[in-house]
Design brief:
98 residues, elongated
């Protein structure tokens, strides 16, 4: 593919620049940094007192109410336990690891 003649690269035009005239460095301190002293540059004054010291956290309060109501004693006979969990003899036949 050939490029069209309008897009062909041409040499940039020559620019003529004038030299910049610089003043010789003066012995004044104009080029150094200064702290601004104008009134609008200053921070607004605040009270000169310190904030109060932090307080200790309060003691953890004990829970005065009972978490569990008075427990009731339930009696379960051995026969009822065997019905729920099986008999003791049932588990004795299992093979033991050696």
């Amino acid at each position: 593919m050939s490029a069209s003649p309008e897009l062909a690269r041409t040499a940039p035009p020559e620019l003529s620049l004038r030299p910049i005239k610089m003043a010789p460095p003066s012995k004044d301190d104009d080029e150094e940094c200064h702290t601004p002293t104008a009134k609008e540059s200053k921070l607004p004054s605040t009270t000169q007192s310190c904030p109060p010291a932090p307080r200790k956290p309060g003691k953890a309060r004990r829970c005065k109410r009972r978490l569990w109501p008075d427990a009731e004693l339930i009696e379960i006979r051995a026969e009822e336990m065997e019905q729920v969990f099986g008999s003791r003899g049932q588990w004795s036949h299992a093979k033991k690891r050696s």
